TrEMBL record:
This is Gfo/Idh/MocA-like oxidoreductase N-terminal domain-containing protein. Pfam families: GFO_IDH_MocA (PF01408), GFO_IDH_MocA_C3 (PF22725). Belongs to the Gfo/Idh/MocA family. InterPro entries: Gfo/Idh/MocA-like_OxRdtase_N, GFO_IDH_MocA-like_dom, NAD(P)-bd_dom_sf. GO terms for molecular function: nucleotide binding. Residues 146-260 form the GFO/IDH/MocA-like oxidoreductase domain. Residues 7-126 form the Gfo/Idh/MocA-like oxidoreductase N-terminal domain.
Amino acid sequence: MADVIPIRIGVLGCAEIARKVSRAIQLAPNATLSAIASRSLDKAAAFARANRFPPDAKVYGSYEALLEDPDIDAVHMPLPTSLHLRWAVLAAQKKKHLLVEKPPAMNVAEFDKIVEACWDNGVQIMDGTMWLHHPRTHKMKEFLNDTERFGKPALVNSCFTLLADSDFLKNDIRVKPDLDGLGTLGDLGWYCINAILWAADYELPETVAALRAPVHNDAGVLLSCGASLHWRDGRIANFHTSFLSNLTMNLTVTGTKGTLHLTDFNIPQREDQASFTTLVNPKYNDLRTTWLSLPIEHTIETALPQETLMVEEFARLVAGIKRNGSKPDKTWPAISRKTQLVLDAVIASIENGFEPIEILG
């Protein structure tokens, strides 16, 4: 990899997730951390020091200044979701490839405007859903595609919750309607929906119906909610997300012959390896007191953490456009758009008395 010219990435904002992605950029063999921007020059400089940016990384006191830098190929955008439309479109117009935090927009209409700007300017867009890039995810898909062991898909359950403290529930941007107004649905629920669609090979459901009794804060932002998704062929999926429950990251995919299960689908419990279990055609004894077959645990090792693999894939696509004249890859934004469509449908169902919402996009 010594002859690889790295893609130069600037970070647009000093959010907490930018710490993780900045480290990932530095670990990626085909990317380099080239700049940081904040609305405060002092804040940007402090962030660069705290996160060990390279000595030659540039520090900017405005987002505009970073986007004007001709030496920056791409940007990571960890800004509040309500700001994505403005700054993502401007980044695309400045020919900066875009790694944007999820959810990439407040709704699918905003997302379409961002993507249109990216295509018009020939730049790549990818959202920051890291777990899709882990080798465990690819290995699990092999099991789901095995008709002899898994059979036909029937049911998916996903759950991502965390118990937020009082400071979070009062001050975090994810509970502010003018910043991240989608609340837990946009933050944690995005992963639940994304995992369901991944298990369904990204086939959209026919209908989405929000579960009753969602919890909102005083500003109307969702703190806890869930939904059921239904496909024409009878498949069902359910998810629950919350800032009010113990940390849980469960994903279970059930087929006619086998079941896949994991308890850390979004953030592996270890950085260098991750596990999942499969159970195929289980049976129990005549008295139904003992199982005759037990789940098998599969452990997948990785030399690089999943967020670095995400950056590596993003930089590979950018390099293809920049150096080989390739067109922006549409796979990743297509996944983002479908996830955003389902998220929109959950909100619409809540607003319409929990009636099922048809997915038309």
